[in-house]
Write a structure and sequence with these properties.
The protein is mainly α and about 170 residues long. It is built from three helices and no strands.
Length: about 170
């Protein structure tokens, strides 16, 4: 036998047997170890992919909720502005109504005061007329003496008052 690269047959046979054993061992280990490791890696990869998909869905849901909350917040702000505007309008109407009522009350008070003043003025004029009549009667009584009776005296006083007019008494 001839030697290949100065190797003997026993060495070549051992190398082939070892290569065959390594190949069988590789197949056996591949079946026993590599497949479970590959399965473990695939499961891990699927779990990570599912978590990323779930995170993307959660992010989309959060964005949608944020948009809804912003929309509701804008609606609430608009509603608040509308309520405030309505309250301002009601306040302005109440203010106008209160001012009008106060003005009407002032007019009523003024009219009552003018009526009372007129009554007091008429009362004072009547009292003055009575005083003047009394004074004039006493003066006429002294001047005329006993010759003029009381009826005639009243007629003279009324005639004198008519001649003088109401303008004298009102000033």
């Amino acid at each position: 036998m001839e030697r290949l690269f100065n190797l003997d047959a026993q060495l070549l046979f051992d190398v082939v047997i070892n290569a065959f054993n390594i190949f069988v061992l590789f197949l056996l280990l591949s079946y026993l170890l590599f497949e479970p490791v590959k399965k473990l890696l695939r499961d891990r990869q699927d779990r990570i992919k599912n978590q990323l998909d779930e995170a993307a869905r959660d992010k989309a849901d959060a964005a949608q909720l944020k948009a809804e909350y912003e929309s509701k917040l804008n609606d609430v702000q608009k509603e608040t502005e509308a309520l405030l505007s309505e309250a301002r309008k009601k306040a302005m109407l109440n203010e106008k109504q209160i001012v009008m009522e106060a003005q009407e009350e002032a007019v009523r008070i003024r009219q009552r005061a003018e009526a009372e003043i007129q009554l007091e003025k008429d009362k004072a004029q009547d009292e003055m007329k009575q005083q003047i009549i009394l004074v004039a009667t006493q003066m006429a009584g002294k001047v005329v003496g006993a010759s003029v009776d009381e009826k005639k005296q009243d007629e003279l006083i009324q005639e004198t008052l008519k001649e003088m007019g109401d303008n004298v008494w009102q000033s």
